[in-house]
Amino acid sequence: MSSLPRAWINEIGRYEGQEVELRGWLDNRRSSGKLHFLQVRDGTGVIQCVVFKGDVTPEVFEQTDHLPQESAIKVRGTVRADARSPIGYEIGVKDVEVVHKAAPDYPLGHKEHGVAFLMDKRHLWLRSNRQRVVMAVRHTIIKAIRDFFDARGFRLVDAPIFTPNACEGTTTLFEVPYFDLGKAYLTQSGQLYGEAAAMAYGKIYTFGPTFRAEKSKTRRHLTEFWMVEPEVAFMDLEEDMDLAEDFLCFIAQRVLENHAKELQTVLERDISKLETVKKPFPRITYDEAVKVLQAAGNPIQWGDDFGGDEETILCSQYDRPVMVHRYPADLKAFYFKHDPQNPKLALGVDVLAPEGYGEIIGGGQREEDYETLVRRIQEHNLPVEAFDWYLDLRKWGSVPHAGFGLGVERTVAWMCGLHHVRETIPFPRMMERLTP
Ligand code: 4AD
Ligand code: MG
């Protein structure tokens, strides 16, 4: 038992000159004669704890020279400033209590490992300092998302995960047996429920896991990902783009405020690339985007969808996100309102993040006319009966409305400068990965 204050590494500076108790795990150690240097992590950071032979009992000195990596320990000692330390402090150890002596063969020792191996050991990989920072940034982004909408009076509405119909096309639906009712699908998007809620509460957001049976093995696709979807009654496409722009600036700012240092020191992120995320974002039409691509030597023709390659070329032209609006309606989901100026175009927008990160937001204005919407559902070969409730929204008080969806994992990848979304969620689900 000890009556010392329990200190956390991220707040260790508060205790300079004082004796504290630190509870954590041994990340690494090295010895030189009368000194053992223990790198200890507690989930908030890593700190060096220096064990000097003359300061501890012979038993403690002997034991700390042999402790395996990931042993759980309580360290008692004095916090002192240290200019060489990345966090500015170290601990002069007086005592070490071993809570659990780890097995000797921790699989993620301090050497290079392949990604497949790291993914297999994801439950342990999360302990690394790099993953700690990625998860901290993810937390900040999720908090920023909620704060942004909450401060603007949006009502949070939770959409169901079992759904009776498709929202984003039938090719990426996950089917689940559902009692006597036949089958249900895991939701691809909360949007349709968000529209019902927007007609009830004016401005809302849904935020939860969404599912796509994506057969693509790209660095941008997961089968389970988190999406936030604002939806606003009496809003058009232009205002939707304004909202998306303010939203992304807010998120980037929050990440910089909270993580500038660790992004640079731990993830080697060039944060000047995030400092440019300021209004106004360029807004270009799909037509203009096609011309930009063709000028860059891409073989795209009007009417083709943008794949990863096209997105990469487009977003690399700008130092901040670019908004591409008015895509060919044929490329888009059934619910998009078509442009009254040119009915071949959908009033939709994709926001592409810079540095090759590609689409992070998709959204637009919804069709609010009953007859038109019925026709669209039929044209998309979707069962009209399944959309009865959704069509009701166009019978009573139908108004122009719009919204968008932001993928959390792609946003985390962009902010952290990660190559692949698999590192942005604690336990990623992909076509070929269901464990751990
Ligand atoms: O463009 P999407 O498909 O749009 C919708 O689902 C609309 N219902 C949103 C709305 O208007 N309310 O998806 C929106 C975003 C994408 O821009 C991307 O960031 C993310 O969701 N996303 C994925 N992220 C990871 N893995 C996948 N397989 C993703 N599919 C979409
Ligand atoms: Mg999209």
Care to describe what's here?
The chain contains twelve helices and 18 strands. It is elongated, with a radius of gyration of 26 Å. It has helices spanning 58-64, 115-120, 122-125, 129-151, 191-201, 237-265, 272-275, 286-295, 308-315, 370-379, 388-392, 408-416, and strands at residues 19-32, 35-41, 46-52, 72-81, 89-100, 155-156, 162-163, 175-177, 183-186, 203-211, 224-233, 283-285, 322-325, 338-339, 342-346, 348-353, 358-365, 401-407. α4 runs antiparallel to α6 (237-265) and α4 (129-151) packs across α12. The strands form four sheets. Strands 6-10-11-18-17-16-13-12 form an eight-stranded mixed β-sheet. A five-stranded mixed beta barrel has the order 1-2-3-5-4. A three-stranded antiparallel β-sheet has the order 7-9-8, with no helix packed on it. The protein starts with 18 loop residues before the first strand and ends in a 20-residue tail after the last helix. The longest helix is centred in the middle third of the chain and has 29 residues, at 237-265. β4 (72-81) and β5 (89-100) form a beta hairpin. Helix content is 29%, strand content 26%. 39% of the residues are buried. By secondary structure, it is α+β, with helices and mostly antiparallel strands. The structure holds 4-amino-1,4-dioxobutan-2-aminium adenosine-5'-monophosphate and magnesium ion (MG). The site of 4-amino-1,4-dioxobutan-2-aminium adenosine-5'-monophosphate has 23 residues, from β11, β17, β18 and α12.
